[in-house]
Design brief:
Blueprint (H helix, E strand, L loop, with lengths): L7 H5 L2 H21 L6 H22 L9 H14 L3 E5 L3 H12 L5 E6 L2 H13 L7 E3 L11 E6 L4 H6 L1 H6 L1 E9 L5 H13 L4 E3 L1 H4 L8 E3 L5
Amino acid sequence: MKTKKRTLSKRIKHPVREMLLDRSGRNDLARLEKVIPRLKDSEASMEVCAALLRPAYRHYIDNVSNNFMAASLESSAFLYSMARTMQPKNIVDLGSGFSSLVLRKYAAEASNNPLVWSVDDHGGWLEKTAEFLQHMDSPSDNLLEWPDTTLIDDMKFDLIFHDMGNMNTRADALPWVTDHLSENGYVILDDMHKSDYRKKAMRHMQQEGIECYSLRALTHDYLGRFAVMAGPPKR
């Protein structure tokens, strides 16, 4: 007898699953704030960052992508807030798009002259990203097409935002991500509501000895999406 597949909305709204994920998110946020006390004001900072990003985000989902494909405003606001708090020097987003603008917006206002790269596995999408960045009067250089990362393969990054391609591509790129984290670097793994990918990502981080922190308490959006932060690497 064939079993009836549950819809996405039913899967993400399963009450027990949601309760456990919420509890894990609250506990992990408390753990993260002990490790990085400067993040204790993240919620208030994110509200400010979301307000600053909202006009550009609306333009992006109306004219470039859509709210299902784009990184959520919640994850984008955390990314912006964390960058402003932690002041990373070398940064890369895997999966170009709105995050590319967020990180360049941070770089434009930072005093330590950070360097931002954006990588995507789709050349056509890189072109769209470049057009969007230009429309927003933001630098559109340092765009690379995966897997040709020769220009940055010798670099270590203080902040990586990983949101690239389909979930198989994203999982396959995890070794590159952890190999390119700086001594004090962190990676933000988006779309961790996808349980198969979450298991692969968490298992990889565990094998590498890298601590993970659910950001669900801060980044959970109406589609059920949330992010996880991992780092720094133990070498």
